[in-house]
Design goal:
139 residues, alpha/beta, 5 strands
Length: 139
C-alpha cells in the first residue's frame, strides 16, 4: 500500500482542479520545465510567462531539466513511494511515466475532458487546439 505520495503537475493539466492535487491536497507537488520540450517546440516567452503565472497559483515546487529525473529526485527527497499525476494525450507523457516507473510507482488519474475528440490536434499552440475545440463546443 502506498501512503506517501508526491504529485507531478504537468502542462496538460495545469489547473487547481488537477485530480492529483485534489486527491492528495497535502502531498508535496512538483512542476518541471521540460528543457528538451522547450527546445524542441521553441516555446515562446509569452507562453512561458503564462504558464509561470498559472504555476504561481498552485502549491508546486518548480524545477527544470529532465522531467523524469527531476520527478524521481523529488520523490526520493520526500521518501515518496508513489508519484500521482493526471493523464495526458502526449506521447512524451507515456515515455516519461515509464522512465519514472523504473524507480517509483506511478498512478495516472483521469481528467474530466473539456471535449470528446479522437482526432489529431497540434498541441504546440493553444490557438490551433482552440480552432478544433470551438467547432465541437459551439457547433
Amino acid at each position: 500500500m502506498n501512503n506517501n505520495p508526491i504529485v507531478w503537475v504537468h502542462g496538460d493539466c495545469l489547473s487547481p482542479d488537477n485530480p492529483g492535487l485534489e486527491k492528495h491536497p497535502d502531498a508535496p507537488a512538483i512542476w518541471v520545465w521540460d528543457d528538451a520540450l522547450l527546445e524542441e517546440w521553441q516555446i515562446g516567452l509569452k507562453r512561458i510567462a503564462f504558464i509561470y503565472e498559472c504555476l504561481l497559483e498552485l502549491p508546486v515546487v518548480i524545477r527544470r531539466g529532465n522531467v523524469a529525473v527531476e520527478v524521481v529526485a523529488f520523490a526520493k527527497e520526500h521518501n515518496a513511494d508513489l508519484v500521482v499525476t493526471a493523464e495526458s494525450p502526449s506521447p512524451r507523457f507515456d515515455a516519461i511515466c515509464h522512465e519514472i516507473e523504473r524507480s517509483v510507482q506511478v498512478e495516472v488519474l483521469a481528467v474530466d475532458r473539456f471535449l470528446e475528440y479522437d482526432g489529431y490536434i497540434d498541441l504546440k499552440r493553444f490557438s490551433r487546439y482552440w480552432k478544433v475545440a470551438e467547432r465541437y463546443l459551439f457547433g
